[in-house]
Design a protein that fits this description.
- The chain contains no helices and eleven strands.
- The mean pLDDT is 91.
- With 124 residues, the chain is mostly beta strands.
């Protein structure tokens, strides 16, 4: 059974920063691409970032490009999302999942074995 556990969310002021963590169990994130997506109340799921395990390439959604950075710590099966210059519209429940990218589909995510998510609230 593969499980993801997200952590690091909380309340942050606009313009502030936050670092999210995703820990995977049941498989090694050394061999699987893991990324982040989010969902705000009343809105569709939005892909945020994906990190390719094969070559280390990173892919970002347009709304977070140049503000968020995805990275990994392979020995701990952990993937991070550094979130900078946060805006109120970043408020959402953030999930991690297996991911991929291609020129036609953009960011894609596996739909199984998501964690409970971690809530990020951006407010003064």
């Amino acid at each position: 059974q593969v499980q993801f556990v997200e952590s690091g969310g909380g309340l942050v002021q606009p313009g502030g920063s936050l670092r999210l963590s995703c820990t995977a169990s049941g498989f090694s994130s050394d061999f699987y691409s893991v990324g982040w997506l989010r969902q705000a109340p009343g809105k569709e799921r939005e892909g945020i970032a994906c990190l390719s395990v094969s070559d280390g390439s990173t892919y970002y959604g347009d709304s977070v490009k140049d503000r968020f950075i995805i990275s990994r710590e392979n020995a701990k099966s952990t993937v991070y999302l550094q979130m900078n210059n946060l805006k109120p519209e970043d408020t959402a429940l953030y999930f991690c999942a297996t991911c991929g990218y291609d020129d036609d589909l953009g960011l894609t995510f596996g739909m199984d074995n998501w964690g409970k998510g971690t809530l990020v609230t951006v407010s003064s």
